[in-house]
Design a protein that fits this description.
single chain, 6-stranded mixed beta sheet, 14 strands, globular
Amino acid sequence: MVYKLLALNIDGTLLQDNGRINKSTKEAIEFAQKKDVKVILSTSRNFQSAQRVAKQLKIDSQIVSHQGAFIAKELDKPVFAKRIHEKITEELVSFLESSFSCHIKIVHERFAIGNKMKLPENLVAKVMFQRTNRFSYSEQYVDSLSEELLEHPATSPKIEVYFEHKNDENDAIKAIKEMYNEVDCIEVDLLRMDIVPASISKLSGVQYICGQHGIKREEVVAIGSGMDDLTLIEWAGLGVAMGNAPSEVKQAADWLTRTNEDDGLAYMVKEHFRKQYKLAFLRRMLK
């Protein structure tokens, strides 16, 4: 099979646990690009944060950000953007703040606003790594997010919710599914869910890119490490799970690579693309 698109998750896949990109990962991305493979990022991160990673890797393609709700190469020129209505946003935040012990953050492509609830220690690092340049991306934290929204309504591609207890996350997902058809809840990992507009996911974002470029399902390689990568990995022609992925993701994958701490992405890319000719060469051969 000749692969034309490589879709990559960021956290736990491209990045090591310390938030850095290994040299071998950069070399692997360059290796795939030299084969004329289109490399894209597919991430839960906000656009500006993902764009910084793309620039480090010299990836000049549309970025599937905000779980697929915001797709763009440039901040001011999205090719696709879908948002949660401000009234729904206000109702969701009010429900979550009054019912659960959780940290809530409204994640717009230009700003983020959240409540000041203290995060569980195991989630602090993950949130910190996602912060962008403070001069280009505003992050504000208030005592009561629901009260702030009453005065200053907001709409955004995504709402992040971090729970202290897993049972609370399960209960919140169940309740929101029963109350709203306008949004979907995506389980990202233990104690975190993202709320996005209905029918939005990393999968829908990658499918949009494929449609724009005439790329077939079987020509896609998707590499991920989180529960929010599951549907994309199941759908892709070659779905790859990182060694640090949850068991559900590993079981759904066609191929299992090493962990993000052991150059898993670089190992997989070089294994699968080393024998593939450049696409331009293959096109000439088929003429």
